[in-house]
């Protein structure tokens, strides 16, 4: 293959530089991190969150929608944006885990508490993350419900365990059943994919976890501690935020 053929082959591959350029801007990256809560936000809300002018936010959001990192929804006169899908959420979470920490020290006890709550247990788009999310994944591996033989996968025992809990995992979609997502605070994998989402939804529906205010943080309830101790052998000390 001559030099010209090699250049053509390189050009024909995925254009990673375009995605990298979108996330290289701090404001756009901040929007994507905020949208990890799985909700749809308005441009005004995101502008206020990042401390930029609404016109600046709109310009950045147009770029992210064109780049297919965000999806736009309209309800009447209102325009909302959300992450384009779970694969984008997992990309953002994984990149955050690889990024150097540069968050300023919290200026108040309440800010420090919010940071600790997020690190302990939170949602990552539609699945569980943080210390608790990683611990749930570890417990499922220890009990043979997941395995790492060909990357993270659900075992037969795991499928039976989900069925016994009454958890139905959607099928017939393009989303992987099980996927590993690198946790940005723990720097270790937590369970994502359709199984991770179904387990998180079940935890909310049964009252095992409950949201903390309007943040992504969640708290494991007494009922949840009892259930996770029974079904996964997890300790109250691990599940309770200090």
Please give the structural blueprint.
Layout lengths: L2 H10 L3 H8 L2 H9 L6 E2 H8 L3 H13 L3 E6 L2 E6 L2 H13 L10 H12 L1 E3 L2 E3 H13 L3 E2 L5 E2 L1 H10 L13 E4 L6 E4 H13 L3 E3 L6 E3 L1 H11 L3 H4 L3
Antiparallel strand pairs: 1-3, 2-3, 4-5, 6-7, 8-9, 10-11
Helix pairs in contact: 4-5
Pfam families: HTH_20 (PF12840)
Protein name: Winged helix-turn-helix domain-containing protein
InterPro entries: ArsR-like_HTH, HTH_ArsR_DNA-bd_dom, HTH_Metal-responsive_Reg, WH-like_DNA-bd_sf, WH_DNA-bd_sf
Shape, please?
Answer: globular
Task: List unreliable stretches of 5+ residues.
Answer: none
Order of helices and strands: HHHEHHEEHHEEHEEHEEHEEHH
Ends distance: 61 Å
Instruction: Give the beta-strand count.
Output: 11
Radius of gyration: 20 Å
The spatial strand order of the largest sheet comes to 1-3-2
Q: Give the DSSP E fraction (strand runs of 2 or more residues).
A: 15-25%
- Overall mean confidence score, pLDDT: 86
Q: Pairing-aware structural class of the strands and helices?
A: alpha+beta
Count of runs of 4 or more consecutive helical residues? 12
Largest sheet descriptor: 3 strands, antiparallel
- Give me the oligomer status: single chain
Helicity range: 40-55%
């Amino acid at each position: 293959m001559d030099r010209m053929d090699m250049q053509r082959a390189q050009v024909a591959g995925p254009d990673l530089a375009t995605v990298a350029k979108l996330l290289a801007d701090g404001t756009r990256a901040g929007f994507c991190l905020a949208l990890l809560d799985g909700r749809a936000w308005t441009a005004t809300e995101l502008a206020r969150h990042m401390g930029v002018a609404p016109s600046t936010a709109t310009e950045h959001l147009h770029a992210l929608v064109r780049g297919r990192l965000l999806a736009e929804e309209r309800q009447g006169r209102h325009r909302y944006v959300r992450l384009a899908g779970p694969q984008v959420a997992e990309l953002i979470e994984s990149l955050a885990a690889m990024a150097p920490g540069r968050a300023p020290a919290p200026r108040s006890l309440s800010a420090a508490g919010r940071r600790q709550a997020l690190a302990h247990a939170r949602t990552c788009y539609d699945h569980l993350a943080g210390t608790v999310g990683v611990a749930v994944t570890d417990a499922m591996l220890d009990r043979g419900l997941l395995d790492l033989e060909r990357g993270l996968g659900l075992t037969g025992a795991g499928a039976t365990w989900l069925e016994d809990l009454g958890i139905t995992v959607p099928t017939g979609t393009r989303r992987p059943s099980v996927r590993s997502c690198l946790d940005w605070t723990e720097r270790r994998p937590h369970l994502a994919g359709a199984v991770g989402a179904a387990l998180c939804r079940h935890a909310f529906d049964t009252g095992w976890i409950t949201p903390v205010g309007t943040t992504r943080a969640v708290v494991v309830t007494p009922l949840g501690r009892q259930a996770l101790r029974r079904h996964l052998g997890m300790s109250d000390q691990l599940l309770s935020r200090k």
